[in-house]
TrEMBL record:
Protein name (Swiss-Prot/TrEMBL): Protein kish
Record-stated family: Belongs to the KISH family.
Compartmental location: Golgi apparatus membrane
Membrane topology qualifier: Single-pass type I membrane protein
Main location class: Golgi
Residues that span the membrane, as ranges: 6-25, 55-72
Superkingdom of origin: Eukaryota
PANTHER family referenced in this protein's UniProt entry, alphabetically: PROTEIN KISH-A
InterPro entries reported for this sequence: KISH_domain (IPR051523), Ksh1 (IPR009653)
Function (record text): Involved in the early part of the secretory pathway.
Keywords: Golgi apparatus, Membrane, Signal, Transmembrane, Transmembrane helix
Origin species: Calidris pygmaea
Length: 73
């Protein structure tokens, strides 16, 4: 993951995957992420909120990123 920090497209991919994964986990087990709203583990709760509230934008970004990875590189 340290190499993803230096490559911008890899960093965006990791962030999108984190947002989608957290939103999926929260849809299955909300209590897992809701009990940690602050601190270091609060990052996962915030990613889940972004995934829930901005889901159309996140979905478009995922499709664009997939197209970019499959056909541009």
């Amino acid at each position: 993951m340290s190499s993803a920090i230096f490559n911008f497209q890899s960093l965006l991919t990791v962030i999108l995957l984190l947002i989608c994964t957290c939103a999926y986990i929260r849809s299955l087990a909300p209590s897992l992420l809701d009990k940690n709203k602050t601190g270091l583990l609060g990052i996962f709760w915030k990613c889940a909120r972004i995934g829930e509230r901005k889901s159309p934008y996140v979905a478009v970004c995922c499709v664009v990123m997939a197209f970019s990875i499959l056909f541009v590189q």
